[in-house]
């Protein structure tokens, strides 16, 4: 996040502001949208309320022409996967004990 630990400890910078900047760089809202006039999303506990053109906090749903459009469905999923070059990393430590 490019934030100095001392700045955080000395409260010279707000973690909430940094979090919002990082999310904004990924075209995601900094906080769950709660528009007064919009469509309620029931995908998760954030219960976003999206006005026209607005994207949900998770980025999976968007209000397009008054309709909630989802990037996922029972048939389509989004996934992020990578090849772990060291399969015996700390995440698998519990298996060995």
TrEMBL record:
User: Under which name does UniProt file this protein?
Assistant: Radical SAM protein
Q: Which organism is it from?
A: Candidatus Methanolliviera hydrocarbonicum
